[in-house]
Amino acid sequence: MSETNPGDDAWSEGEDAGFIDPVSMEEDPTELFAGDTGTLDVEVRRVLVRLLQRRCLLAEKNPAQWRTLLENQQLVESRLHDMFVRLVIDHERGIAHKQQVRSAELDVPILLKDDPYNRAETLVLVHLRTVFQQERVAGEVSARVDIEELEQTVLTYFDPGDTNMAERQKEIRGAVTRLAREGLMEEETSGRYRITPLVEVVMSAEKLSELSRWLRERNNAAGHAGDATAREIAP
To answer: What is this structure's pTM?
Structure first.
């Protein structure tokens, strides 16, 4: 009877015996973090988070994420629909943004709040949309504004009897901060902003025409108008 070689033991452990050492959960290559049960690739997850965090995704500014979104559109839409949020992709403008689903037949929990723009934000938005439209008609690819020019124009819409210019300027600067944070304008250099195509999504040509007409009428009646508060619009 031959001797048994311990190295040939059929029950020996190791890869040579047909066994693979177990991999801990933290080291599982299919997981992005301990206990991860998600099924999306890391880049798709980043796009999903970006859409939830920010007002929009711009193809011009984020070409890699834009490609990832288009390649995985159904997956991203499915995840958003699970939260009662709709994905809207404007291929012509290169913009993807989200919308809250609302239904009279279904009790929908509201995830996205519609915070209306205040007076200063509305006025700044009207000016941005007007400049953007004028530049597009003139054949320009992009539109830009300087903060000084923007302030001077928007101040003309306030009550001419209001002498607290410092407070009005503070309101305008605050409006610029919010609109820049939401992606409607981007600061390229100190005090100079590029207007993004999102401004056309937020304010349609019809809404711009309506607000511009209302502002002209208000200014024409400024001599006997008592209230200079601009109409609030929802983003």
So the answer is: 0.67
